[in-house]
Amino acid sequence: MADAQTNAAPTTRRGTFVSLEGIDGCGKSTQVALLADRLEAAGHEVVRLREPGGTAISEKIRKILLDPANGAMADECELLLYEASRAQLVREVIAPALARGAVVVCDRYLDSTYAYQAGGRGLDAALVTRCNELGSCGVVPDRTLVLDLCCEDALARATAGGADRLEQEGMRFQERVRAAYLRLAKAEPERVRVVDAVGTVEDVAARVDAALRGVVATPLGRGDAGAAHE
Ligand SMILES: Nc1ncnc2c1ncn2[C@@H]1O[C@H](COP(=O)(O)OP(=O)(O)OP(=O)(O)O)[C@@H](O)[C@H]1O
Ligand SMILES: [Mg+2]
Fold first, then answer.
1. Is residue 107 marked as binding?
2. CB-based burial label for 159 (10 Å; 0-12, 13-18, 19+)
3. Residue 201 burial by CB count (10 A; 0-12/13-18/19+): exposed, middle or buried?
């Protein structure tokens, strides 16, 4: 059990928090790995994370969430498991990393819960937002990039390596998730930027860096203004 001090709202924040979002198979994990490499090459301390997961407890919760045998899981149960995994990650890893000045790069974060549980599953959006406030312990990214790709192309990329439980939900579900991400970008234009995920890995990486300009310095982000697709 955490003590009273670690349960206090995180206040010290010297680092930078970036999250990558988007529907299944759009290229998040590919771009998170490349971005983290570039940031390290630029001299930053980088903490690479993937949600759900990133702590011993959160990884156990991840296994429950992604297990194809758990198809009977109630939407509310799913929502709360994501939030439980996230809260542990924030308290144990993200808040301390931001306090010491690291750059945290997270493959999915609270916007995934909004897009999938509210947009995809149809849970009440205001309720999901409140749950996100609890699960994130109030720690919101400085910038969130939504890698945007049409559902057909993303599903083709995603299913090449075998489908997990969420991927089996199919195209209509992904369409709702994509629409929810685009709504988020409209609602929070300063934090949430849409990045065109069409094209080669290198094309998308250049757009990622362009969309991070002003938030964190990356080797590509200091040059090539023509790569911006914000
Ligand atoms: N720009 C690209 N062009 C073609 N293929 C790509 C591109 N980016 C990633 N891929 C490939 O598409 C597949 C899915 O990419 P990746 O795992 O990065 O997506 P993801 O968004 O993390 O997926 P998931 O939501 O399932 O975790 C991988 O096989 C990856 O190598
Ligand atoms: Mg991934």
1. no
2. middle
3. exposed
Q: Which atom of ligand 1 is nearest to the CA of 204?
A: 1
For residue 201, which atom of ligand 1 is closest to its CA? Answer: 1
Q: Which amino acid is at 94?
A: I
Structural domains of the chain sorted by starting position, each given as residue range(s) with its CATH number in brackets = 16-227 (3.40.50.300)
User: pLDDT of the chain along its 230 residues, tens only?
Assistant: 554 444 555 568 899 999 999 999 999 999 999 999 999 999 999 999 999 999 999 999 999 999 999 999 999 999 999 999 999 999 999 999 999 999 999 999 999 999 999 999 999 999 999 999 999 999 999 999 999 999 989 888 877 755 555 555 588 899 999 999 999 999 999 999 999 999 999 999 999 999 999 999 776 554 433 333 33
Ligand nearest to the CA of 22: 1
- 162 within ligand 1 shell (Cβ under 6 A): no
CA 170 to each of CA 104, 156, 197: distance values in angstroms, whole numbers, following the listed order: 31, 11, 20
Does residue 5's CB lie within 6 angstroms of at least one atom of ligand 1?
no
Closest ligand 1 atom to 200 CA? 1
Residue nearest to atom 19 of ligand 1 (CA): 27
- The answer to whether 15 is a known ligand-binding residue is no
Q: Kindly identify the ligand whose nearest atom is closest to the C-alpha of 115.
A: 1
